[in-house]
Structure formats: C-alpha cells, structure tokens
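== Polypeptide entry ==
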Amino acid sequence: MTSRRRSALLILAASAVALGLVGLVWLDDRATRGELVGLLREQAHALRESVAAAARSNRAASSFAATQLGERLLDQARALAELDGQRRLSPAAIESVTERHPLFRVAVFAADGTREDQAATVEPAGEHGGRGPRGGWARGAGEGAGRGWGGGRGAGGGGALLRQILQEGKAEVVTGAHASRSGGERVAAGVKRPRGGAIVVTVDATEIAALEKPASLESLLAEITAGSPEIAYTVFEHAGARIAFGDAPADAPAAAGERALSVGNRPVLEFASDVPLAEGETARLRLGMRLDNVRRVEQRMALRLFASVAAASALVAFAFGLAGLRRRYGTLSEKHARAEQALRRRDRLAAMGELASTVAHEVRNPLNAASMTAQRLKREFLGSVPESGPERAELEELLSVMTSETQRIDRIVQQFLEYARPPRLAREVVDLVALLRDVGERASSLAEARGVRLDVDASGSGSARVDPAQLRQALDNLIRNAVDATPAGGRVSLAARREGAGHAIEVRDTGGGIAPDELPRIFDLYYTTKPDGTGVGLAVTQQIVTAHGGTIEVDSRPGAGTAMTVHLPVGEDEGRG
C-alpha cells in the first residue's frame, strides 16, 4: 500500500469517526429532548385526568347537595301543606318553621297567585334570574384570576315554580339554584295546596356556595397553576365561558392538540384536550407547559455538539497533519534513499574512475601495440603472400579479427571511462520543443523499421537551460529502449510539459512492462535484459539527468507498458527570464 493511499485511508477513518461522534451527540440531543417532551406530555395527561375527575366530582357534589337540599325543602313544604289541609296552617306555624330553620323562607299563594301569608320575607311571584337545574357558567373578573361562577339566566326561579303548580297542575316542584333580586342564590320547593294555591319554601344558598368554594374547580386550577413552576397557565372553557389562571394567551386553538408558542419571551408547549363531563358534556382544557428545562437541555446539548464538532475538527486536522507528516516523511525518506544511492554511486564511480585510469594505462598500451602489430603485418607481410593462395585468405581473416577485437576492447574501455567520469555539462538555453522534435525525427526511422508508431507532443514545454547534446543522448537512449520493448503495431510517445518550477519529459510505450524484481536494477551498469544489449544506455542516461539536477521516475506494470519521466529543474537563466 502506497503512502498516499495510507494517508487517504487515515483521513477517511478520522472523518468517519468525527461524523460518527457528531451524529451520536445529535441523536442523544434528539432523544433527550423527546424524553423531556414526553414527560411533559405525561404530566399534562395526568393533570387533565385530575381536572376531569375534579370537574365530574364537583358536578356530582353540586348535584347531590342540590338534591338533598331540595328534598329537605320539599319535606317542609309537604308538612305545611298537611297543616293547610287540616286548616291548621297559620302565621304562627309558618313562623315556627322559619325560626327552627333560619335559612328557610315560606310563602303561601292562593289559586289566583296572590299572597295569603302575613310574612313578607319571600321572593314575590314573577320571573327573575336563576341558574336552573344545570347552573350556568360565566367569565370571572380579571384576566384568569377571578372566580368563574356567576349568576346565569334560567327558568328555575320562583315565577316558573308557581306557573308549573298553578297553571300546569303539578303537585310538587323543586328548582335548582337561582339568583334572587338581592344578588344572592336561592333554592326553592313548592307543593300544591289541597284547596288550590301553592306553598313555596326557599332557602338562601349563598353560604352553601361559599362552603363549597375551597373544593371548587377554579380553586383546583389555581392551586395547580401556582404550585407547579413547569405550568405557565391553565384555561378551562365550557359553553362559551372561560376560567383562566397564569399568563394565558388570548387566542385559542380551533382543535385539540399541541402547539408551541412564546409567553413572556419564554417557550411554552400547549396541550389542548377535551375533558368529558357528566351526561355527555365536554369542556376544553388547555395546559401551557414551560419548556425552560428543555431549553436548558438543548443549550447543554448545543455546547456538547459544538465541543464534539471542535473535537471532530481537531481529529480531522490531526489526521490531515499526520497524513502530511507521513507524506513528508515518505518524501524525505525517498530523498534520503536517493541521496544514499547517489552517494554510493558516486563512491562507486570514484573507485571506477581510479580503476579506469589503471585499466586505461595498463590495457591501452598493449592494445595499441597489438593494433600496430596487426597493421604492420597487414602492410608488410600480406603483400608477400600470393593473392590466390589459401594462406592469404587465412591471414587476412586473422588480421581482421585481431583488428576488430582490439577496437572492441578499446570501445569498452572508453565506455567504462565515460561512465566513471562525471559528465561535464555545456549548459545553454534550449527550446525544448525544437529539441524534442529533432530527437523524434532521428528516432522515427528506427520506429518505422520496427512497425511502431512514434508520437511527439512538446507543445506544453518551453525553454530550458541544459546541455543539448547530452540531453539528446539521454532521450535517444530512452526512446530506443521503448521502441525495442514495444511489439509491432504498438505506440511510443514523447511528450514534454511545464511542471511547477521545472519541466517533465515523458517517454511512454505500450510494451510488456518491467518485472517488479527488475526495476531496482535497470540503472545499474552492464545490467540488461535484452539479448544484444550492453547495459550501458540507462546507466549513462541517469548519469546525464542527475548531472542536470534532475530525476528519472519509472512507472511500469507487467503487460501495461512503461513510462519513464525525466524531471528537470529550472536553470538560473530560466528563473531570471
């Protein structure tokens, strides 16, 4: 695995861990908020059930109290009617009843509705306000802080009672609580007199209502609102009337459900639901639950999320930095390896240079003597041998072999000396476009002879300060190797481009590629895989490129061809230009 790939995997893993960390914090935030809202929802449901139970209990208690009071009044009215049937009903008897029961008031009416009793302490006949059997509701004074009960309008007053007895012929009638003209609340019961008319007994119910007030529904709502800091307001709505406590908003939702709003610049989640009352009646209960705890949790979660994002960013930055350090370490290691290789090559060249001097001195002198001897033999003794004789042909062959072999040895020694001595560059500013085209034209005949297409693209290059002769020799070696490695019908390309602060010249072929175990040795002197190769060309090419301050990069895969790229830095003249 390459260093770049390892760095990419490291960055990818760090990014995945960072995203996972942020995702976990976000999910935790959502889950915590959901749990808190669920608790508020459960609390609102419990309060709704409590209010509903209290409302039903209040209704049942009121109904039971009214029933019991009505029965007592009816019993007193029956007793008076019995006295009236015995002709024993007198003002004294009526007064004794009112003395025993100070809350009671008694009125005796004739068949035509006129008063027959002497006590003027009861409500006169006629219609007036009353709550009826099902007392009405009214808005309390103030914005949700006052009492919600008030006098309603109904048909349960004294006039209605007399009408039912005198006109409709009913024997007994009991009314619900109704308002009197003095502003209090009354309950009345009446019976039909044996000889016509009616006896009506009323009681003042104001004190009874006052006794019931601590256990009333509005008291419960007030206590709930005042005693729970999580509750912003409570609203109870029924039959157009409204009981409100706390900072209740004026608007009301059209349907039951939940809605989020702001009350006093504080977030509130309102739960609106229908509360079942007795006999199929329903009321609307609205509970405003404060979201302060949820807001604080969200703020803490936001801080945690911010910290997680910061930690994730730091982790990714650390991964990038580590990847950069790894790449830089890899680059430095590669440079160090190249420097060590160059140092070893330099030491080897120095040793080879010393050896070359000795070889040149020790070998060339005998070679020169052998070469001069062969020439003298050919000049002096070959002419004395008859041309048609077999000895002359054999002598010519021996002298020719001696001459060619001495020349071959001399060339090998010369190559050895050239490789051992560092090349001396004659730099000048050269147009790389023209140089590459010239190299391509020189190698085109070789490529055509092998059936290989040679493409040259130098449009992306410019001028460079190089030794044109030696650079041409290096490129010619690379192209020859590429053509030799490419089968007929293949393609070899020569291209140049600007590369940062330098130039890149690439020679690419479509041959069989180089085996991985051979790549480290291709630039070694005398190493070759070609049957007729000398192993000198790539060694000299690398020496020339290194002398220019450049490098050669090899990219080869078996079966996919080879690309050799020469990287040349910008010369001083280029930098000034």
